[in-house]
Amino acid sequence: MNRIYLDNAATTPVSPQVLEKMLPYFTQHFGNASSIYDTGRDARRAVDAARRQAAAAINAKPQEIYFTAGGSESDNWAIKGAAFARRKKGNHIITTAVEHHAVLHTCQWLEEQGFEVTYLPVDEFGRVSAEQVEAAITDKTVLVSVMAANNEIGTLMPIAQIARVAKEHGVLMHTDAVQAMGAIPVDVEDWGVDMLSLSGHKFHGPKGVGVLYIRTGVKLDSLVHGGAQERGRRAGTENLPGIVGIGEAMEIAAKNQPENAKRQAALRDRLISRLLGEIPDVRLNGHPTERLPGNVNISVRYIEGEALLLRLDLVGIAASSGSACTSGSLDPSHVLLAIGLPHEIAHGSLRFSLSDSTTKQEVDAVAEVLPGIVKTLRDMSPIFPEKEV
Fold it and tell me: Does the annotation count 107 as an active-site position?
């Protein structure tokens, strides 16, 4: 069976070019980058080169790039680090109701430490406005954290406008850009953010490595203590192969972004058009135009998303229902509830996320098989109206 992988928002395969670049750093050039002898200096040069690649990919300075263990750590460090570093100024944080749990759970933990958090509601498309952020800022606000692109419904946020408002009020701005790298242009100067989180495995880099961009002059408390790595701000022996891999992956993602985005958007629109046109009682979730080029999130009424996933898997198609990080939960997606969907419709969500290797034939295969799956499951559903069978 030829399998079709359309869950690239959950993770992507490491590209051959990235893997080739990484392999020597597992066996030949395996030194500790903190060592002063020749093998260690080789490792240090590799880390420095990857830092330059990462910085160039997002229009930052190399000294503003910090390597982490992934997007969740980057989010935790940015939010906790900024909150505690600025606690004398205030204890108020602003975020949104549709953030990744790495942001939401971190903010909830900070509430237990005495911080106050405003979780801004979103509109029916999952967007929050700069005006909402400005209205929520108080003299105690120390941080705004708004994701660049939603991992579930693909909606893009007006990050540059929000960052401008935050700066006008002397408030730090962080964005979780984990889903954005390689999909849309990521430029820290254009956006005006103070901190930005990335995760390598979302854009054909390795798992277990991420980046936190910290603008020069921004003070953060350290999250990981125990050594002088990452210029004394993040302890732990450097993940040398991972760092080499994410540097290479970021360079490739930034270089190929315009072409890949155009191609994926065309396939995305083709799939959306066919699914909405050929299956009754289906709705598109997320913004119709201001969305990631490779994201298709739909809700199919009268059916559980898990049932759809299992049927798709049987015919060799991999997708997801709700957030991949919480797919084991029986609760519907917090993102879909936040955009106003009732539980019974939110439970029937399905996300297809494309990559640069997705083909027209694969998209058409999904569009051809899904209507039959939906009909079969609806025929079995006790809540499907008989008159529509």
Answer: no
Q: Look at residue 325 in the predicted model and tell me its pLDDT.
A: 52
- What CA–CA distance (Å, rounded) separates 12 from 200? 9
Token readout for 209 is 């490595």
Helix (H, G, I), strand (E, B) or coil at 173: strand
DSSP string for residues in 213-234? EE-TT-----SS-SS-HHHHTS
Query: Which one from 136, 315, 325, 337 is the annotated catalytic residue?
Result: 325
Classified as helix, coil or strand, 4 is strand
Integer CA distances (angstroms), 282 to 53, 98, 299, in order = 43, 22, 6
In order, the DSSP letters of 75-101 are HHHHHHHHHHHTTTT--EEEEETT--H
The whole-number pLDDT of residue 46 equals: 96
- Could you tell me the mean pLDDT of each successive run of 10 residues in the chain, 389 residues long? 94 98 95 87 95 98 98 98 97 98 98 98 98 98 98 98 98 98 98 98 98 98 94 94 98 98 98 98 97 98 94 97 58 93 93 97 98 95 65
Alpha helices for 129-280 (secondary structure H): 130-136, 159-168, 188-191, 229-232, 240-278
In this predicted structure, what is the pLDDT of residue 39? 85
Q: What is d(CA 250, CA 202) in angstroms, rounded to the nearest whole number?
A: 10
The residues near 268 (Cβ < 8 Å, ≥ 6 apart) are 293, 294, 295, 296, 354
Cβ(307)–Cβ(377) under 8 Å?
yes
DSSP 295: E
Exposure string of 350-365, with b = 16+ CB inside 10 Å and e = fewer, is bbbbbbbebeeebbeb
Distance, CA of 45 to CA of 62 (rounded, Å)? 13
pLDDT of residue 314: 97
Strand pairing class (141-145; 195-199): unpaired
Q: Look up residue 274 and give its DSSP letter.
A: H
* Neighbour-count burial for 129-148, b at 16+ CB within 10 Å, e otherwise: bbebbbebbeeebbbbbbbb
The whole-angstrom separation of Cα 94 and Cα 121 is 11
| Residue owning tokens 């997606």 | 333
Paired strand residues for 94: 118, 144
What six digits make up the tokens of 316?
Answer: 């060799």
